[in-house]
Amino acid sequence: MDFAFFAQQIVFGLTLGCLYALLAIGYSMVYGVLRLINFAHGDLLMVSAYIGFFGIAIFRIPWPIAFAISIALTGLTGFLIDRGAYRPIRNSPRISALITAIGVSFLLENLGIVIIGGRPKTFPTPSLFDGVLVVQGVQIPSLSIWVVAVTAVLLAVVMAVVRRSRVGIAMRALSRDIDTVRLMGIDADRVISITFVIGSTLAAVGGVFWAMRYPAVEPLMGVIPGLKAFVAAVLGGIGSVSGAALGGLILGMAEILIVAVQPEALSGYRDAVAFAILIVILLTRPTGLLGEELPD
Largest CB tally within 10 Å, which of 12, 36, 190, 210? Predict the structure, then answer.
């Protein structure tokens, strides 16, 4: 394996890892506040991709406006999911919330199939993201540069919000004791809704980039990326924003590099890598790499 080939795989792994990280952060934020695995989170990637597709290809909206609308409407979708599905069962047993999350996921997927159809559609990639930069024989797609840069900026923004803003302080307090937070006069439902909106917005950005990276948009496109992002969140430490980002990068790198070493023998096991990592991390370090024990 020469340097150029190895560096090329690093570029691919870093791009994929950043896409996983954008989704994994949303999983971690919701779990940190509610102890809820929002299995509908991956389907928000699909929602974002379809909104962007219709905006550009059908309504001929300029792509920056179409992407902004996609991100905003996906954030609104996350807000409505919380208010319509999760808020009414906030005080119910956790199994009820888990079943509801699975139900919302199936609802979004089947609405996509019924309303739009199951045939994949080609996502139009704007020319800004379509170039290739060649450095020492290594081809770096413009899209990869944008994915890494945007992920880094969004991670920094989310970390600043969580650590320094009043809403972030409230989120961290909710992760410890939601009942005490309510007794202190904090509107817990409002903070939870903001958490869903932030997580959904990150998933929307990931959805737009994913649709340009793998330009076949269909109703079930968010299932596997959503599951792998969940694995990334568990790997990094679910409930930890920085841990989710780290887990996404490790998972993306692992998928690409393992297949690169033995493409003929291991290419068919690419998806299995993620779930093998999940089993190993649950057996050896259930709190993840950067996670910590959180109160029930």
Answer: 210
